[in-house]
Amino acid sequence: MSIIFNSSIGKKLIMSLAGLFLIAFLPVHLGINLCLILYDTREVFNKAAHFMSNNLIIKVIEIFLFAGLILHIFYGIYLQIQNWMARPVRYKIENYSQTSFFSKFMIHTAAIIAVFLVIHLSNFYFKSKIFGEVPIVIYDGKAYHDLGILVIEKFKIPGFVWFYIGCFLFLAFHLLHGFHSAFQTLGLDHKVYTPVIKSLGWLYTLLVSVGFILIPIYIYFLV
Amino acid sequence: MEKINTKIPKGPLEEKWAHYKATQKLVNPANKRKLDIIVVGTGLAGASAAASLGELGFNVKVFCYQDSPRRAHSIAAQGGINAAKNYTNDGDSVYRLFYDTIKGGDYRSRESNVYRLAEVSGSIIDQCVAQGVPFARDYGGLLENRSFGGAQVSRTFYARGQTGQQLLLGAYGAMMRQINKGTVALYIRMEMLDIVIIDGKARGIVTRNLLTGNIERHFGHAVVLATGGYGRAFFLSTMAMGSNGSAIWQAYKKGAYFANPSFVQIHPTCIPVHGDYQSKLTLMSESLRNDGRIWVPKKKEDAEAIRNRIKSHRDIPESERDYYLERRYPAFGNLVPRDVASRAAKERCDAGYGVGSGLAVYLDFSDAVKRLGIDTIRERYGNLFQMYDKLVDEDPYQNPMMIYPAIHYCMGGLWVDYELMTTIPGLYSIGECNFSDHGANRLGASALMQGLADGYFILPYTIQNYLADDILTPKIPLEHHAFEMAEKSVKEKITKMMQIRGKTSVDTIHRKFGLLLWETAGMERNRQDLEKTIQEFKALKEEFWSDIRIPGNDHELNPELEKAGRVADFIEIGALMVRDALSREESCGGHFRTEYQTEDGEAMRNDNDFMHVAVWECRGPDHEPALHEESLSYENIKIQTRDYKH
Amino acid sequence: MDFILKIWRQQDSQAKGKFETYQVTGISPDCSFLEMLDILNNRLIDRFEKPICYDHDCREGICGSCGLYINGRPHGPDSAITTCQLHMRRFRDGDTIIVEPWRAKPFPVIKDLVVDRSAFDEIIMAGGYISVHTGSAPEANTIAVPKVKAEISMDAAACIGCGACVAACKNASAMLFVASKISQLAVLPQGIVEAKERVRKMVARMDELGFGNCTNTGACEAECPKGISLTHIARLNREYFAAKLL
Predict the structure, then answer these.
(1) Are B465 and B386 part of one and the same domain?
(2) CA closest to C145 among chain B residues
(3) Which of C50, C60, C89 should be substituted to probe chain B, the one whose Cβ sees the most B Cβ atoms within 10 Å?
């Protein structure tokens, strides 16, 4: 069991499991964010955010989430370096083979997503967790972090909106290959189900990226 | 003459092999470890022998000129492998396989060897299945068979159109397993250039490392040659570009006798020649003749119109098509043996009925598609059809294929006795490079059978009968005088070739020589042309040794040098082929002398004077080779004229 | 037809190689790619120049010797063929054709377009077989193999070991090669006995040899001359997990 992670296939197992975990997390995040534009008040969003940061179970999951993220990043980089080393002399002309387009740029899209994550986390997550710079709002006599106002303030800046839209497009590119690739790595391949998984991957990518992109646009124009 | 001792065991035919095994000498396991065996070649015969000998515990050294043992040309065999399993309940038996092989070989092969081949054929299938060879299966999960030329039963096992590949990879896997265990040592990109004889026994080889050019010496208590056929002498053939006769030719020059050199097989279903730049011919499996029907137009005008592209095959109605094999040979139809099918195609084309360039006939699947449906045809021949499409740029599901005969296999080879030993003690020859089993013509799907029979089930026994007397022989140091002399002569030959620095590339001479050989010693031979050719070969040999140009040097990867060494030998082999063809004044199997044919163009055998193996002995560069005869007697089979009409 | 060829020339494994440009003229469209190189080589020999070295043997697409990286694709612009089956009619008159050797750390260049693929033999050596001693096999028809399984096994077994999968993969991964052998033997009842041992050893050897990691891009499948599918890689993954975790 321990040695499995020394092998190429073992490392990819981690990549795929961590990736799927992150894939499972995205809709949850999206659901909470959508509260901000589906309701007239920020109350539902702020309460949901509060629940997410205080519930014990969620907190445990959060640890796993960060662990998954770190593993995904660490092994992604590690495998990529190995892959570069496997071809020390490059071709003069390459990549003319007919392959899935997005699979060729996983490390590049990943790098952009990583930059995004740093900015995103320091704007919202770390502000509330570490620096405590978030305004307080009172609902039903109880104090909550008004994360909602933080989000709305940011999304009134046009550059920020563009930045978010761009990053989610890259996330979409990453997911378009990553989703079904994770299943292939797990060995879950089937004459009938594999095409279904591929379609699900497209559907998922579409919903998640469109959902996330809608939020800054909606806030910029309509809030 | 005393050297031709066949060592056929006494007793009834069916008991010879069992009796031999029961009474032969064996080597005990502790002694096996002390004995070195050299195997040259890693095709079906070489790989299976190396694996089996390694399993037994001998120290085996195996050599191939390719970059991996898996590339040996056995891999290109498509159709299948025969075995007398009688799974189809159509009356097959060891005797019938034996009978068909002898008859197919036109009564020019040795009864005892062929019977043994038929006897072990079943074990080969067992062995290969256990190795994981994915043979075709029926819906019940059991093995499927198909029929092949020259037989009235279905006894051919197959793995799509890649049977040779699958069997070779099975043997290769078994050998790699032994290499992993350390019983077999592998030497890749090494070409054997000479054999070392010490006190009359084969004791080693001299090789050239094709990457560095280093000449190396290797000792073995016995040497096994499994180097395949010499058909590339014809330049255009279905053999691999590197296939050569150099190993057996060095053996011949050092005293091993060469049997029936002129017996080469012309395969009827190859893709026709299309240009003078062409480097090789591609075979389309004989299995295609199961469902394909061969025809040319009945009228010469139609054939001419097709050649001039005025008409196409579609313009020829059914009634105007001449299915000449079905017409001439009603009993076997399109499944007549290869030599018969080839000659019939040549006869039609020479008479002016050929299509395409004029040297081609149709192999038509339209009836089979109608009868079986396109899916069945695709399942049976899909990869062959795809290959044809890629090479010729024409879809064989829509149009008939065009085919023409081409050089394919050498029935002739080093003379071996019942134990597969040549006339040099300790030197063995297995697979295509010996002569033993196929007589004057080989049946389809029998080459794979013979290669594996020799390597898995025959040589590992018979070699022990020899080595049992050698257990006290210590390894001979590589400094021995005989090794030194062999290395010196190899180096001299290389230096001589490098220093010619003439004007002509090796390929140019090879092409010229090959065409000449094809024209005089190909499908048809006659005295006049053969005699003339002997003189022309002398001139070509002269030209080779005075005018070839090899760029580069001899201590680097230098394919031109490799080719030169092989072609030098081909020219000499060709001369012996012609000499042999000249001396055999009859027509039999693949050897067709125009002087000896019946009125309707069938081969006329002469059993009174030529029911023998022609065995040639080299007597040095200054003397003509001597001809010996191994007379053949058939005690268990009635000798008939081969008849595929009734 | 006329072509401009830019071909990688490298004297030996240590030397620094470079591209040389050659003009070839008067080539028939029915000429195969290797025959075109033969013609070029003959012209080089006429000028007493060293001919271009490349591996080739059977010239009918089965031995796996030939392998050239032509215009950015292993075995050139056609699909499901080897280099020796590529014909010049697939190019346009006057095309510039760039020819490179396979590039991968475990496939070092030996000379010009010749590379060392012994790494594949080493992987097979580690366990790419069923251990059966000559003579010890049971009667062939005692083992029934469902037709479907036999067909899957044959699909995988079609691998010719040419290395196009490694050459095409942006990671120089040998997963398709390994998967084809694993898959061939894992679906057959005969192969199940050793299945775990086999996959462990072969994958370990593959990793040691320095091949890259599979990222499921599918370039191998697209360039495999025998059309071996990614399905077999999924099976390899499954087999590996089963061997390691169960």
Answers:
(1) no
(2) B141
(3) C60
Phi, psi of B430 (to 5 degrees): -130, 155
Cβ contact (<8 Å) for B165 and C62?
A: yes
The percent of residues in chain B predicted with pLDDT above 90, rounded, is 89
For B94, B328, C180, the CA distances from B643, given in Å and listed in that order, are 21, 11, 46
Active-site residue list of B = 338
Q: How many domains does chain A fold into?
A: 1
Find the CATH number of the domain harbouring C164: 1.10.1060.10
Average pLDDT over residues B328-341: 90
Q: What is the CATH number of the domain that holds A8?
A: 1.20.1300
Q: What pLDDT was estimated at residue A131?
A: 66
Tokens of A53: 């940061």
The count of domains in chain B is 2
- C203 pLDDT band (50/70/90 cuts)? very high
Query: Mean pLDDT across the stretch B531-550?
Result: 96
* Mean pLDDT estimate for chain B: 95
Percent of chain A whose predicted confidence (pLDDT) is above 70: 98
**pLDDT of A168 higher than 80:** yes
- Say which residues have a Cβ less than 8 Å from residue B317's Cβ, sequence separation at least 6: none
Using CA coordinates, name the residue in chain A closest to C217.
A103
What is the number of alpha carbons within 13 Å of residue B393 lying toward its C-beta?
11
CA distance C129 to chain B (A): 5
Name the residue in chain C with its Cα closest to that of A16.
Answer: C215
H runs (alpha helix) in chain A? 8-38, 43-54, 56-85, 106-120, 126, 147-154, 158-185, 193-222
What pLDDT is attached to residue A180?
Answer: 95
Q: Decide if pLDDT at C22 tops 60.
A: yes
pLDDT of B2 strictly over 70: no
Domain boundary among B388, B405, B422: B405
Q: pTM surpassing 0.90? A: yes
Do C42 and B505 lie within an 8 Å CB cutoff?
A: yes
Q: Identify the domain containing residue C49 by its residue range.
A: 3-111
Q: How far is C245 from chain A (nearest CA, A)?
A: 6
- Say how far apart CA C117 and CA C124 lie, in whole Å: 12
Q: What is the DSSP letter of B266?
A: E
Tens-digit pLDDT profile for residues A56-112: 999 999 999 999 999 999 999 999 999 999 999 999 998 788 888 899 999 999 999
Span B274-297, average pLDDT: 90
B/C interface, count of CB pairs below 8 Å? 224
pLDDT at residue B504, as a whole number: 95
B26: burial class by Cβ within 10 Å (0-12, 13-18, 19+)? middle
User: Identity (one letter) of the amino acid at B103?
Assistant: K
Nearest CB neighbour to A184, from listed C223, C230, C241: C230
Q: What is the pLDDT of residue B564?
A: 98
Structural domain that includes position A49: 3-87+105-222
Asked whether the beta carbons of residue A83 and residue C171 sit closer than 8 angstroms, the reply is yes
Subunits with at least 3 CB pairs below 8 A relative to chain B?
C
ipTM of this predicted complex? 0.98
Q: In a mutagenesis test of the C interface, which of B85, B86, B129 is the best target, namely the one with the most C β-carbons within 10 Å?
A: B129
**CB pair distance less than 8 Å for C106 and A86:** yes
Beta-strand ranges (E) seen in B17-145 are: 36-40, 59-63, 81-82
Beta carbons of C58 and B75 less than 8 Å apart? yes
Cβ-defined contact of C128 to B173 (cutoff 8 Å): yes
- Say whether C44 and B551 touch across the interface (CB within 8 A): yes
Reading phi first (left if > 0) and then psi (alpha if -120 to 50, else beta), residue B373 is in left
Contact criterion met (CB below 8 Å) for B189 and B395: no
Task: Using CA coordinates, name the residue in chain B closest to C10.
Answer: B557
- What is the domain extent for residue B581? 1-263+411-637
Sign of the CA dihedral with B564 first, then B565, B569, and B570 last: negative
